[in-house]
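so the lab meeting is tmrw and i was supposed to have these ready like two days ago... anyway. pasting both below. for each one the top line is the aa sequence and the line under it is the structure tokens. i havent really looked at them closely yet so no promises
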Amino acid sequence: MKLVMAVVQDKDSNRLSNALVDHNFQATKLATTGGFLRAGNTTFLVGTEDHRVQKLLDIIKDNCQSREQMVAPVSPMGGNADSYVPYPVEVSV
């Protein structure tokens, strides 16, 4: 048995949840919040047999995608402001 922990964006969670049910995977779904972007995430905890791990990873990869997102910078607090970027930057999430 293996335990797979997958942290996905909220936008992908319903599609992934439905795909897991369709392929007879049972999962625990937890609402979580990311630290860097402070955006909502969903963490899936899935226990499965060793021989089904690759199938599970394929389902996650097929139903979740990365996106480009603009992020407003956080001003430095008491730290070095030399590397501070005062305008939004695009990051891959």
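ok protien two:
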Amino acid sequence: MSLTSADIARIANLARLELEPDESERMRMQINGFFDLVEKMRAVDTTGIEPLAHPVATIQEITLRLREDRVSEPNNREANMRNAPAAEHGLFLVPKVIE
């Protein structure tokens, strides 16, 4: 996949960015370089390779230090809901912003 100057102009317009021609060209080269790197990574055969939980696991055995899953804060739902300008069934009501 490779982006053209028109693609960069369209993306800049959508992002509300105003790019100078040299900035646009530099951006196109950087993004296309990123796409090239992704394509190289996709070309690598990873059949039979197990995913890693952590990158250090490639050089040494590690154990993830996970904390105990327990409740540490009291339930303040009623107090929190009293601050809400509008609430229903224990949920905050907010104005609709997307149609």
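from a quick look at the 2nd one: The longest strand covers residues 87-88. The mean pLDDT is 89. will dig more after coffe
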